[in-house]
Amino acid sequence: MSTTVDWIQTVFNVSYLLIVWGLALDMAVRYFRREVSSPPTAVWIMISIFTLALGDSFHLVPRIYRTLIGPASAPPWVADGIALGLFLSSVTLSFVYFFWLIYAARKFDLAWGAGMWFLTLVFFLRLILLLFPQNQWGGEPNAWKFYRNVPFTIQGIGIVWLFLRYAGEHPPHIARAFRIAGYAIIASFAFYIGTLVGTLWHPAFGSLMLPKIVAYVVAVVQLYRIEFRLSP
Q: For the structural domain made of 4-230, what CATH number should be given?
């Protein structure tokens, strides 16, 4: 039988998927109806959120299904699906931040200089690390969960710096949305790192993934608003 914690996590996961898929579909409709002021920049937010929704669905849907039928009744493919889903979502999330890098370059009219190339290199390094069998997706956590997340954290720091550094070049309502998105990304990484480190001592730290989900939703909603609601 699923526990109360399982059901709470499932409610969060279902709500999260409904929100990100809803935003992705709304953006697609608006984009193809040309209800957006800057298609060259908006397209990268649309692609990134579609990628985010798809990637997280890979591991959240099996988790939701396991809760609904009860862990004891779950067939073997559910555990395999979660393990594969964790790998696929890690890959797609890396692409999300790379798409945000391209978006920032276009939105802030930045040259693809040394900093951009460094973040691109970090992106490819993250993808390579994810392919190593030592990650043991679905197995017992090991040191590789830290190794693969070092370049991912650098990706996040780079995006936050770009959002906060260049937000002021846009009108106040746009700048405010960029800053909220940047701070939400910081919060999501703080909760994520808290989960990674805290679960070494106690599984209860896994509950920090819930506020991480909330922080991610805040960031995604702000980026959606910037391109599909706030832009003149």
A: 1.20.1070
